[in-house]
Amino acid sequence: MQIVAINKKARDYEILETYEAGIELKGTEVKSLREKNVSFKDSFCRIKDGEIYLLNLHISPYRFANRFNHDPERPRKLLLHKKEIKKLTGKLSTTGLTLIPTKIYFNDKGIAKIEVALAKGRKQYDKREEIKKKEIDKKIKSFMKYGGR
Question: 113-148 in b/e burial notation, b at 16+ Cβ within 10 A?
Answer without folding.
Answer: bbbbbbbeeeeeeeeeeeeeeeeeeeeeeeeeeeee
